[in-house]
Amino acid sequence: MPIVYPTKIEMPALDPLERRETWDEVAVGYTVERALAEARRCVQCQDPVCEQGCPVGVPIRAFVRRVALGDFEGAAELIRTKNVLPAICGRVCPVEHQCESRCSVHGRFDPVGVGRLERFVADWERAHRTNGSAAAVAPRPEKIAIVGSGPAGLTAASDLVQLGYSVTVYEALHAIGGVLRYGIPEFRLPKAIVDEDVEHLRALGVDFETNVIIGKTVTIDELLGDLGYAAVFVGTGAGSPKFMSIPGENLKGVYSANEYLTRVNLMRAYSFPEYDTPVKRPTRAAVIGAGDTAMDAARVSIRLGAQETHVVYRRTQAEMGARAEDFKRCGEEGAIFDWLTAPVRFLGDDDGCVRAMECIRMELGEPDESGRRRPVPVDGSGFTMEANLVVIALGTNPNPLIPLTTEGLETNPHGCVVVDPETGRTSREGVYAGGDIATGAATVILAMGAGRRAATAIDEYVRSKAPAAA
User: Fold this and answer.
1) Global pTM exceeds 0.90
2) Which residues does 334 contact at the CB level (< 8 Å), separation at least 6?
3) Class of 143-239+397-465 per CATH?
4) Does the structural domain 16-128 have CATH classification 1.10.1060.10?
């Protein structure tokens, strides 16, 4: 019988005061003993409903059972049948809204720590280098192009190359990984892990081309035409930031979260002075929003020297979008949360740099179209908050370049490419899309699920077009 401890086995982490001064990974991870204890909390229920909450269909019950038996290699093999990025997903998946929310013991006790166990297995696999090459498959003559090297693109590339296709991933930036590299800080996702997963895909036969902007360097039509690709998967994400359109937004020191995190992560501002990347090193910071990106930006500002960092959100903690674990760690590191607060104007100094922002208190009214109660300004509640760095983390939209340069590619009013949700098929024959470019900003694992579904559909499409064997 399983040992049903009421609470999850704690995962060690660096001390909050220590991690304010370092970019080292915060969560230390399970030891073997802790992993065994956590896996044995799983009741191995007959109907593993937890698996219904996993967008890529990881066989959770079976891999957790392997961990409980001490068969870590077997657990890794099971996970990799469905998830090509387990070390990443084990760190960044919002498990409390997915697999763990459906755990059979949830409600009476803490759910089984599926994410923590997935991370443990992936890290054990990396340390013991058991990850060999995939079984050889008969090569196919067709070429497939993947646009974007984020989680959707990497997943589609992995699946397609293992089906025998020649796969090339085109990336606009100089490094592979998409949001995994430019959006998620080192202390939450070490880039060495991203590098290892990319090298694994290279070993499988995936080719990578960087500094190629599809829609400018080369178009989708050229990929399908002169360059001879049988199909294209577009996984370019949602990298166009949303702004507030309030006075002072163009002051120096007011960043979109995309720019701020890209300067720190991709351009390695965290490695100063080895990398002298221009980025504001604040004394008082304000981050607008309360999602995962806002928590990342706030924690980055603390590590860049902010003596005080405020997370400003117009609703309450109950409506925030951030993962519970990252919210908790952000608070532990010293962030101050200003709920029911919204900026209305940024104030600058004589040099055009932001020095403060005017804010107003809010209260929640009737639900809006999202189903959440609409924030309503409270008359006479205005006040000023000092800040010499402001990061606006209110979400993103897809970059319009590919739709603008691809005739017949349908988009919705939000600029997202319209796709069949089951296949990723777009309005253009031979063109598939998935991840944030189709849904708007979402999660890594949802993008991976879209990449997997599209890879299956692309395989069916290409085979249907292939000439019949003689």
Assistant:
1) yes
2) 16, 20, 302, 308, 309
3) alpha beta
4) yes
